[in-house]
Amino acid sequence: TYLSPNVTCTSVAVFLLAKQIQWDGLIPVESRVRRIISNLGAQTFGIYLVHALYLEMFNTKNLPTLLYNGPGGPAIWIPVMSGAIVMVSYFTIRILKEIPGARIAAP
Prior knowledge:
Elements: H1 5-20, H2 23-26, H3 32-42, H4 44-59, H5 63-69, H6 74-98
Helix pairs in contact: 4-6, 5-6
């Protein structure tokens, strides 16, 4: 589970490690990568809220069968589906933020 001591300690350790890195030295302030990361970071809460909808949609379409029996197996399909769900969730939040009345629902 997500509340087990191992997961909690690892999460805290990764957070503290990421906090100690001098990101300005690694990624220039005016770079395109920095803008993409900042834009993605601004949408993370909305992505978190929406991704469960897409997980449920993909789960009803025999996703577990594809993940474990598809070409390349789980080593290929889990990262591919994770990336696809994050991208679809990101664009869903971006579209919701453009709709005047729906901005309240999109954090």
